[in-house]
Amino acid sequence: MILRALAYATIGAAFMLAACSGNSDPAFGPARGPAVAAVAPNAISTKYIKHIVVLIQENRSFDNLFATFPGADGATYGYTSKGKKIALVKHSLAVKDVNHDWSTFLAECDMQAGACKMDGFDKAKINGNNPAGTYAYQYVDPNQIQAYWTIAQQYALLDHMFQTQGSGSFTAHQDLIAGATAIDATNSLIDYPNEWTDWGCDAPSGAVTSLITVNDVYKFNQGPFPCLDYPNGTLRDLLDAKHVPWKYYVPPYTPKTGGAGALWNAFAVIKSVRQGPEWSTNIVTPETAICSDVDNNALPAFSWVVPDQVDSDHPRNGLEADDGPDWIAAVVNKIGQSAYWNSTAIVIVWDDWGGFFDHVAPKQYGSGQLGFRVPALVVSPYVGQGAISHAQFEFGSILKFAEQTFELGSLGTTDVRAASIGSIFRFNQSPRQFRAIPTSRTCADFLRRKPSYLPVDTE
Prior knowledge:
459 residues; alpha/beta; nine-stranded mixed sheet; globular
């Protein structure tokens, strides 16, 4: 059900002819190993990839996690709105939460003649609307995120993955299931619903959303109730149409802490899912069930995995450590050490930039797109060791790879213009043996732990 009026401008989406490691393509980092030509995913990936798992983390810019990663397009300094050069400060993973909505994006991007100057990060706000000063100019101590760095060293790092929209987690998670948040030919959802106890169909009566037009005109609280079906549908519609099994693993919730939409559950917004039978069959809680499904030979063809807040990397005012790296390593190891390894692609992506500094300006397409860079990793037996892709990707690139792999057709949203992440795979190489990611915890530890029931934000 593609709405022609919503078609996005097409960007070159031809697949690169060289693999992501051991090649001379300038879109990739230094060669490691023998050159192997990449193969277009819609021609061959279906033969090799039977499972795609998308692990979704929270609120980090690329420079915040990988500023100093060798070979990547990172930066250790930036500029303020007054033209002052400033060094990024090394911080703990547990830090304060910086504002990260559309107004913050505009301030930090410092839009001039349709392009971001990337020198307004000192204009960010924190703890409500208090000036953050230069707090956004920071990066995480690599010793605290060694699991992420090891994954990048052993598998693939995408250093030009951009979030779809310059906004926060509400629309970011929608973009990861639908490629966009357009509700008609002119307007898209942006920022957050005005009712924070639930961001979906269970929101209190009178809850509304905000909108942005194709010309980037912002309409605060002028959007619909956050319970709808997009004109173009979501990836779920394409998967269902081709009878491709899928699951959305998400933490449990209680009425006391807020409804399902308070826990980054994107499908809590999708009326046909929230009020249909798939809410009981395809929306799976707790999120740790993915570990059990791997053990029980029940992993679906496509999975989204949303973390408990304490495992998400979401800033929480520095009050406690973050278990995100251990959580990701545990799930990757569970899949990698299972019979699923040779047929699986794992994509790890952070939903938005969290207000933190990044130095690469995103291209602008309207409707609040694109947002800033976020980290992204790909783990698969068909990616080169230590591969770094400099190609431009966005959330639609992940959906496009799924569309091609399972021969689903197209949503007709940002997947049209986006380059598929399939270009980083080397399907004509023998599958690599899995190399475990060092971690102090296993899936069994997370299965035993009680859920936190924490909503997305507690500030």
